[in-house]
Amino acid sequence: MITRLHTSARMSKIVKHAGTVFLCGQVGDGPNVTEQTLDCLSRVDVLLKEAGSSREHMLSTTIWLADMADFDEMNAVWDAWVPTGHAPARACGEAKLADSDLLVEIIVTAALAE
């Protein structure tokens, strides 16, 4: 069974299937990559909780940065947010994001909490 939450014509914010949670790409508000990453990860927390999961259950993450020069600044926030011993498989790359004000987008796949 597939469960879709917060679904529009374009996408669902959460899709659950076979014990796995897929989140759509999350972005954040703020003037710099630190603030945007903090806000983005806060949104991830809310969606994971709603889906019945958590940071501790993350399986994989893809992070897109508008500029790889922000890699260390984003990682400082990321490293403080990820629970020790629960780091997911992760990829990070540079991409032109949907809006010129966006500096980071994070896509998370997690297991449902048992």
Structural summary, described in words:
The chain is of the alpha+beta class and 114 residues long. The chain has two helices and six strands, in the order βββαβαββ. It has a six-stranded mixed sheet with strand order 1-2-3-6-4-5, with helices on one face. β4, α2 (71-81) and β5 form a beta-alpha-beta unit. α1 runs parallel beside α2. The longest helix has 19 residues, at 33-51. It is globular. The two termini are 17 Å apart. The mean pLDDT is 97.
Helix/strand layout:
Blueprint: E1 2-7, E2 12-17, E3 20-23, H1 33-51, E4 58-65, H2 71-81, E5 89-94, E6 104-111
Parallel strand pairs: 4-5
Antiparallel strand pairs: 1-2, 2-3, 3-6, 4-6
Helix pairs in contact: 1-2
Mean pLDDT: 97
Rounded to the nearest angstrom, the radius of gyration is: 14 Å
Helix proportion range: 25-40%
Low-confidence stretches: none
Helix and strand pattern: EEEHEHEE
Instruction: Kindly report the spatial arrangement of strands forming the biggest sheet.
Output: 1-2-3-6-4-5
The percent range for strand residues is 25-35%
Largest sheet: 6 strands, mixed
- In DSSP terms (H or I, runs of 4 or more residues), the helix count works out at 2
Broad shape? globular
- Helix/strand-derived category reads alpha+beta
- Please report the total strand number as a whole number: 6
Oligomer: single chain
